[in-house]
Design a protein that fits this description.
The chain is an alpha/beta fold and 266 residues long. It has ten helices and seven strands.
Length: 266
């Protein structure tokens, strides 16, 4: 198993929600080698046709196969990260082609790097061509890597998904208020994301406070069994209304019926 960081896992889950019901298949944390090396996210087309909702800035021209690397506010996007991305592309193209003599056309592929902070060090190493606010490209020999900087993206509806991962409180708030979930699992994803923000010492006090406020709101929307997960017996009972307590007990009873009397509530 990989040691994927929580924000990388949530980044992949958010794209799964965003692409729900579309012709884009989302594969997070794809293993590309015998010695495990993971590309953060792959978006691949399962059929023709436009997306039913606008994509974030920089993603308008998706190919048949799109490889994404993600760098959170805790990480820097540098030259080595781009080298890794090219290596992932080479491995992926080989594995998904009929043979080494019959490789998928290069035009089928797009490479993306999403970073929360502007990559200062990378800008000193390579030429970053600015395409629009928050969107850049790095030219390679025959390919280009599209770079999307979350902190520079305008606060517009199509960018709400990426603003969820911002370290700026105004952007994170915009993302929470404007992103339209496609699946019910997004409530749990929101909860996990803001829980990370509320405890992250690298986050501003303002963003930590905002995250804690949202956690109280999101906690009410979680299924009772998820609200109880990881709590002691005393904590599980504290603050639950009679209706919530009844629903939680029913969930435990269903689990016992499914798994047998030896099963323990999580």
């Amino acid at each position: 198993m990989s040691e994927q960081q929580p924000l990388h896992r949530l980044f992949g889950l958010s794209w799964q929600d965003f692409c729900e019901g579309t012709a884009l298949n989302v594969t997070p944390e794809l293993d590309l080698s015998v010695k495990q090396q993971f590309v953060d996210l792959v978006l691949s087309r399962s059929g023709p046709g436009p997306m039913p909702h606008p994509l974030p800035d920089g993603f308008e021209d998706l190919g048949a196969h799109n490889l994404l690397t993600f760098k959170s506010h805790q990480e820097a996007l540098d030259g080595w990260a781009l080298c890794e991305q090219v290596g992932h592309y080479v491995n992926y193209r080989k594995q998904h082609s009929a043979s080494m003599q019959d490789l998928l056309p290069e035009s089928d592929f797009r490479l993306y790097a999403v970073c929360v902070r502007y990559p200062q060090k990378l800008a000193q190493q390579v030429l970053l061509t600015r395409l629009r606010e928050g969107v850049y490209e790095v030219p390679l020999v025959t390919l280009r890597i599209r770079i999307i900087v979350v902190h520079q993206l305008p606060q517009e509806e199509q960018n709400a998904l990426l603003h969820l991962f911002s370290a700026k409180v105004e952007q994170a708030r915009y993302g929470k208020e404007h992103y339209r979930p496609r699946t019910t699992e997004m409530t749990t994803m929101f909860y996990d994301l803001f829980n990370i923000y509320s405890e992250d010492p690298d986050m501003s006090t303002e963003l930590q406070d905002y995250a804690r406020q949202r956690l109280k709101e999101l906690l009410k929307k979680l299924p009772p069994e998820e609200r109880l997960e990881g709590l002691s017996p005393e904590e599980r009972l504290e603050g639950l209304s009679p209706e919530e307590l009844r629903a939680a007990l029913e969930a435990v009873q269903r689990r016992l019926q499914t798994n047998g009397p030896s099963a323990k509530p999580q």
